[in-house]
Amino acid sequence: MQKDQAIRIMLADDHPIVMQGFAMSLGAQGMEVVGQARTPSEALAMYEETKPDVAVLDIRFGTELTGMDAAQNILKADPKAKIVFLSQFDQDSLIKETYRLGAHAFVTKDCDPADLADAVRHARAGKLYFLPQIAERLASLAVRGDVSPQSQLDERSLEIFKLMAEGLTNAEIAERLDLSTKTISNISQAVKEKLGVHRQAYITKLAVKHGLIEP
Fold this sequence. Notes:
There is one protein chain. The chain is built from 11 helices and 6 strands. The protein is of the alpha/beta class. Strand 5, helix 5 (113-124) and strand 6 (129-130) form a beta-alpha-beta unit. Helix 8 (155-165) packs across helix 10. It is elongated and about 60 Å long.
């Protein structure tokens, strides 16, 4: 594993104060922060410009794009990219999806700075890193099976489920997706049956629980 001084890091977070705090803590570990992006699009451009050893990305941004989108684009351009995700949200499905995407670590924003530094070191070496509580939850998820909407619905049904969770009516969803109201009605009913949720409050709660919409 290379020395910490050789680890060049790009940070991406839409909260400058939070990002500056992480930059300071990583700098104190002898690492070099070579860029700080505030949007997913800026993160992609900055990654291509700075070619960091590790990209540390927030998952949620105040835009339509997310840190997951940025990571997908970065990995498409550079399949060997090392990604560490940061998030204040830690739903099981969200954590699983970050590793499935190709990230080397998922770290919560309230973690000890030393944990973030360890995650960066592992990522730089091409190794996966798990906080103990994250590892335990992923193991539990593997044992009991994934019952998230992401695992049970196809892409179109999942898209409709997210719009349902946001409170859109069938007519509004039909207009948004340029489909007939009857088609949306049939799919939404099938989604409710598949997931075992029928009341709007439960639909929204399930979507929030699995990181599909903002709380």
